[in-house]
Amino acid sequence: MDERFDLGVCLGLVRQRDEAAARRLFEHLYPLVIRVVRSHRSPRVAEEDLAQEIFLKVFTRLEQYRGEVPFEHWVARVAVNTCLNILRAQKARPELRWADLSEDQAAVLEATLADEKAAPNPEGARDVVDKILECLVPADRLVISLLDLEERSVAEVSQITGWGQAMVKVRAFRARRKLRKHLERLQKHEMI
Fold first, then answer.
1. d(CA 168, CA 154)
2. pTM over cut 0.85
3. Distance, CA of 146 to CA of 143 (rounded, Å)
4. Which of 40, 42, 95, 152 makes an SS bond possible with 83, Cβ 3.0 to 4.6 Å?
């Protein structure tokens, strides 16, 4: 059996559902894909999970490759786009995980979650609040900061932001609900 790798022949066999050819193609492309993943991935996504997602896209979209550019370039573009899409999604829907907290922040949050009447260190508590608020989009973070942290009235927030009072109330309600969900997720992961 010839050990040389012929990309054209291999692609033809993969399109015919040859598993051995698919394995050879995977082995040929893995160094390229893992290099792209390492340079573009989010710290929250496991390297191997992202590589697997990229290979899934490559193999399921193989018919889209027309041969206008070298195959490796096409694969690299798929890999980069996949990584960037995941980064964009995380920015649009930020998530805070227990591992993202410092030891001091985790201790303050553990004490607070364990006993709601406990009075944690004010500096540490503010640090945790700031960390949790980072999960919100800027407009939600602004309304929560103005209403709940600075204790401004709905009318004052309406004047500052230019939003109607109803909009301020709705945005605050939704932002608080998002914060509760983030805290519940944090608490659930901490218990695991």
1. 7
2. no
3. 5
4. 40
